[in-house]
Structure formats: C-alpha cells, structure tokens
Amino acid sequence: xxxxxxxxxxxxxxxxxxxxxxxxxxxxxxxxxxxxxxxxxxxxxxxxxxxxxxxxxxxxxxxxxxxxxxxxxxxxxxxxxxxxxxxxxxxxxxxxxxxxxxxxxxxxxxxxxxxxxxxxxxxxxxxxxxxxxxxxxxxxxxxxxxxxxxxxxxxxxxxxxxxxxxxxxxxxxxxxxxxxxxxxxxxxxxxxxxxxxxxxxxxxxxxxxxxxxxxxxxxxxxxxxxxxxxxxxxx
Length: 235
Ligand code: APR
Hints:
Shape: globular
Strand order of the largest sheet: 3-2-1-7-8-9
Bound molecules: adenosine-5-diphosphoribose
Number of helices: 8
Order of helices and strands: EHHHHEHEEEEHEHEEH
Strand content: 15-25%
Distance between the termini: 10 Å
Radius of gyration: 18 Å
Helix content: 25-40%
Largest sheet: 6 strands, parallel
Number of strands: 9
C-alpha cells in the first residue's frame, strides 16, 4: 500500500505565532488598512507609492532576524522531508517562513513578498529590499514598472493547474490557519470532500469548518506538530 497523497493548504494563521499579523482577526491587517487602497491593481495604478509602502513595511518585517519559522512550519518541513508519498504544501501566505523552515514541495498561490516582478517584461527577481516607482528592472532596466510579486484581489492566483492536479489525486487534504473566506483556496475542500479525508486545523471554527470530516482547534504550534506526528507514526 503506497503512502497516501497529501495536499496541505496554509493561511496566515500558521505564521501568527511567528509574530506576523493575520488578515481578518480583530488585530489583523485589514482592520488597519483597506484592501481597495493597497491590494488591487487599481490601487497600484492610482497610488503606486502607497502600495509600495504597504509591501515594503511587510517585507521589512521578514528581514527582521527576530522573525523565525515556528513549530508548525518546522513540523510541515519535517513531513515534507520524510513523506514517501505525493505531498504538496500550497500556501496563501506571501511570507518565506515555509521555505526557511525547509519545506520544498511548496507552492505560493498568492505570490511571495521576497520577490518582485517587472510589469513590462514580466521578469521575476528575488527581492529583499524596498521597492519604489524609481526602481529599475534588473532585466529590462525600465523604471516605474516594478511591483511586488504578490497576487492582488482581482488577479489570478498562481500555479492553479498544478494545484488542481494535486487535489485530483489527493487522499488527504489538510487546511491550516485559514479563515476559508477567499477563493479559489476556500473552495479546495469542496472539490475533494467525499473522496479524500479532510481535516481543518485552526484556532476557531471557520466558514468552511462544516465541510471538513474533522476539525481540530488550537494554536498551530500545538495542533500541527501533533498531527504530523500521527501521520509519520502511520507510515
Ligand atoms: N493557529 C492557528 N490558526 C490561527 C492562529 C493560530 N495561532 N491565529 C489565527 N488563526 C486563524 C484565524 O482564526 C483565522 O481563521 O487563522 C485564520 C486566518 O484567517 P485570515 O486572516 O483570513 O487569513 P487567510 O485565511 O490566510 O486569508 C486568505 O486573504 O487577504 C487575503 O491574500 C490574503 O492570503 C490571504 C487570503
């Protein structure tokens, strides 16, 4: 019997205990700034420096040495390293904590804060520094066209074909630290339920909890290592 094929979806909740704010909690990012002002193509056209300022501040947080992957990121990286079956970690997060924890079979469906893209030549570059309208593209040298390599509301998420293929063949779907309010990620559980075991690991009930076979409540740094331990013991 080959090991089950696993798809894991993570959201902002998995990075909360590393010190990064979520989006929709009471102290979340969208309680402080409006999506329409900083996270849409229209906002970028209207006031690019305001959008750059928003992402520059979040990118600077990732450069802070105090910000480290937590036990949940590390447990998923351990699973990635030892799971003999198919495994894909799909994150909605734009932070780099999964990669820094050691996850390799990883897709960022909403892009990555530590990358920048040229709106003219589409080249994507690793980027840890600030961005501005004066930043030249390293590839085509054009200024005024560099943007965060992050998917804004109204734009298509990345890698959807690969994600859909993984969902089609998965035996286990686990959603961790996501409120289940933003599609297409929020629709993944409905795609697989009935033919895959579905588990939600979250701090509290979400919009999608009723769609899961099993929901475990608690902080990710407790629920994720425990769940990973059970999976590894089942090998
Ligand atoms: N452990 C586990 N879950 C937690 C923790 C924690 N320590 N802290 C918070 N959570 C849960 C919250 O209860 C909530 O259900 O994480 C979830 C975070 O939900 P959101 O803030 O909506 O974040 P997310 O689901 O990732 O948002 C999806 O929306 O704004 C867009 O592009 C953005 O990728 C983001 C997408």
